[in-house]
Specification:
The protein is an alpha/beta fold. It is built from 20 helices and 14 strands. The protein binds adenosine-5'-triphosphate and magnesium ion (MG).
Length: 485
C-alpha cells in the first residue's frame, strides 16, 4: 500500500490534473492520472489497485457518466467523486443518484478536494469494516482459551508478530486451534478492519484451485459462465489464510510462490495483471520438512512462508488447559441455547486430563456439547463418561487414595490420608496408554484439590505444606481449573 491511498484523477485538462495531483500528493496520497474515460478504464482493466477516483463529468469520447456506470459495475466498492464544471452541476447531482459518492466544483478549492477525498476514503473503509464485521459475526468471537505456558507464549508471539506485515506459518495437529490463532493474529494486526479471507486448500479440487485463488474470466474454462473474482483480490489490504497448505499440488505451489513474491497475478483466462496488497498466513497439520524430503512440498515456498513460524501444541501437552476450555465451552454452548449448563465434577476433570484427545480442542468441544445434552443439567460425574473416553483415559473413576502411593514419598511433608491395598492394582493404572506425564498431572490435580479443601481453601498454608511458593501453587491450581477464593 502506498501511503494513505491511491487515487486516480481523470480529467482532460492538464491544469486540473496538475493541481489535483499537487494537493493530493502533498497530503500523502499516491496519484495516477488519465486524460480520457477510455484511458481510465484501461488502467482499471490493467488491474491498477485504487482507493478513490476523481472523475470529470465532461470528457471527450466516453464521458464521465458512462465511465461512472462502468465503474459501478466492475468495481462497486471503489468510491467516485465527480468533478463538475459550470453548467454540469445538475449532471453531478444526477451522478450521485447513479452511485457517485460526491462531487466537487471547478474552480477547485484545496479544502473541498481534501474534504471529499477524506470523506470518500473513510466511507469506503467503513464499508469494508462493515463487511469484515458481517463476515465475522457468523462466527463466535475469537479468543484462545488456555493458561498453560505453551498457550501463554503462543498468545504473546501472536501479539508480537500481528502488527508487523510478516507472513506466518502455523503448524499443529488437527483441531488444535490453528485457524483461531490465524483469526486472532489478523484481529490484532493493522489490517484488522480489512477482510480475513480463508481458503481451505485441501477442500478445493485441484483443477479449481487456481480459479478460486486468482479468479477467472467468463469462458475461461467449461462451466465458467461468468467472471469471478478470486480470493487474492477479496483479501486486498487484508489477510489471506491459506489453510491446509500442505495439501496443495506442486503446480499450484509454484504459482503461489510467484504470486507471494510479486503480489501480482492474472485471472485464469485473462491477460491483465492484477496487483494486490495481501498478507499471507498459512497453516498445516503436515510435517512440511518431511513433505519436502518426499518431494511433495517446495522447499523455497516453505522458507518463504516460514518467515515467522508458530506452533500450536496438541492438547495432551497442555492438559492444564482442559478444565479452562471445558468451562469456556459450557459457557458458550449453554448461552447459545439448546443445552443446559452442567458442572463437570473434579473427578471427571481428572479423568479427562488423562485422555489423549487425538482430535484436540475440536474433539473436546464436541465432547462437551455431547455431555451437556446427555446430562440435562445434572453434574457430570466420572460414571457418566462414555466408554470411548474412559477406555483410553489412564485415570478412571478411582477414588483419591488409589493413586496415592505414586506420590507419597517418605520426604513428603503431607501424609496422604489412606494408602491403597498393596496387593491390588488400582484400576487407575489399568486402562489406556502409558503416559507418565499425564498421569502425574492428573494425580497432582486431584491431590491438590483435596488438600486445598482440607486446608479450608488457604493457598498460603497449602503452599507451605507442599513446599511450593504461593504464586506457583496458585498458577498450578488455576491451570487445573481448581477454584481458588
Ligand atoms: N484455545 C482455544 N480456545 C477456544 N476454542 C478453541 C481453542 N482452540 C481451538 N478451539 C476451537 O476448536 C475448534 C477447532 O479449532 P480450529 O479450527 O482453529 O483448529 P485447526 O487447528 O484449524 O484444525 P484443523 O487442522 O482440523 O483445521 C474450533 O471450534 C475452535 O473454536
Ligand atoms: Mg483448520
Amino acid at each position: 500500500m502506498s501511503g494513505k491511498g491511491r487515487i486516480l484523477v481523470v480529467d482532460d485538462e492538464s491544469g486540473i490534473r496538475f493541481s489535483l495531483k499537487g494537493i493530493l500528493e502533498d497530503e500523502g496520497f499516491a496519484v495516477v492520472e488519465a486524460d480520457t474515460g477510455e484511458g481510465a478504464l484501461e488502467l482499471l482493466d490493467a488491474g491498477e489497485a485504487l482507493d478513490l477516483v476523481f472523475l470529470d463529468i465532461w470528457l471527450p469520447g466516453l464521458d464521465g457518466l458512462e465511465v461512472l456506470s462502468r465503474l459501478r459495475e466492475d468495481r462497486p466498492e471503489l468510491p467516485v467523486v465527480m468533478i463538475s464544471g459550470h453548467g454540469t452541476i445538475e449532471t453531478a447531482v444526477a451522478a450521485i443518484k447513479h452511485g457517485a459518492f460526491d462531487f466537487i466544483e471547478k474552480p477547485l478549492s484545496l479544502e473541498k478536494v481534501l474534504l471529499a477525498a477524506h470523506k470518500a476514503l473513510e466511507f469506503s473503509l467503513l464499508k469494508q469494516e462493515n463487511m469484515a464485521l458481517r463476515h465475522s459475526l457468523g462466527e463466535a468471537e475469537v479468543h484462545l482459551t488456555g493458561a498453560s505456558p505453551a498457550m501463554n507464549s503462543l498468545r504473546e508471539m501472536i501479539g508480537q508478530v500481528a502488527p508487523t506485515d510478516a507472513w506466518v506459518l502455523i503448524t499443529g495437529e488437527n483441531g488444535t486451534g490453528k485457524e483461531i490463532a490465524a483469526r486472532l493474529l489478523h484481529g490484532q494486526s493493522l489490517r484488522a478492519a480489512m477482510p480475513f479471507v480463508a481458503v481451505n486448500c485441501a477442500a478445493i479440487p485441484e483443477e479449481l484451485i487456481e480459479s478460486e485463488l486468482f479468479g477467472h474470466e467468463k469462458g475461461a474454462f467449461t462451466g465458467a459462465d461468468k467472471a469471478q473474482i478470486g480470493k487474492f483480490e477479496l483479501a486486498h489490504r487484508g489477510t489471506l489464510f491459506l489453510d491446509e497448505i500442505g495439501d496443495m499440488s506442486l503446480k499450484t505451489q509454484a504459482k503461489i510462490l510467484r504470486i507471494l513474491q510479486e503480489q501480482r497475478f492474472e485471472h485464469v483466462g485473462g491477460r491483465k495483471t492484477i496487483t494486490v496488497d495481501v498478507r499471507v498466513l498459512a497453516a498445516t497439520n503436515k510435517d512440511l520438512p518431511a513433505e519436502i524430503r518426499c518431494g511433495n512440498f517446495r522447499e523455497d515456498l516453505y522458507y518463504r512462508l516460514k518467515v515467522f513460524p508458530l506452533t500450536v501444541p496438541p492438547l495432551r501437552e497442555r492438559i492444564g488447559d482442559i478444565p479452562l476450555l471445558i468451562d469456556d465451552f459450557v459457557e458458550t454452548l449453554s448461552r447459545r441455547g439448546g443445552c443446559k449448563r452442567a458442572v463437570f465434577s473434579p473427578e471427571t476433570l481428572a479423568v479427562l486430563t488423562t485422555y489423549p484427545w487425538p482430535g484436540n480442542v475440536r474433539e473436546l468441544k464436541n465432547f462437551v456439547e455431547r455431555m451437556l445434552i446427555l446430562a440435562g443439567g445434572r453434574e457430570i460425574t466420572p460414571d457418566r463418561l462414555p466408554p470411548d473416553i474412559t477406555s483410553q483415559a489412564t485415570v478412571t473413576a478411582a477414588p483419591m487414595q488409589a493413586a496415592a502411593p505414586a506420590a507419597a514419598s517418605s520426604s513428603a511433608p503431607l501424609a496422604v490420608s489412606a494408602a491403597a491395598d498393596d496387593d491390588e492394582i488400582p484400576d487407575t493404572f489399568q486402562a489406556g496408554p502409558l503416559d507418565l506425564k499425564a498421569a502425574r498431572a492428573a494425580f497432582e490435580a486431584r491431590f491438590l484439590e483435596a488438600k486445598l479443601r482440607e486446608f479450608g481453601g488457604n493457598v498460603s498454608k497449602l503452599a507451605e505444606a507442599v513446599g511450593l511458593d504461593r504464586s506457583s501453587l496458585y498458577r498450578k491450581l488455576k491451570g487445573y481449573g481448581i477454584q481458588v477464593e
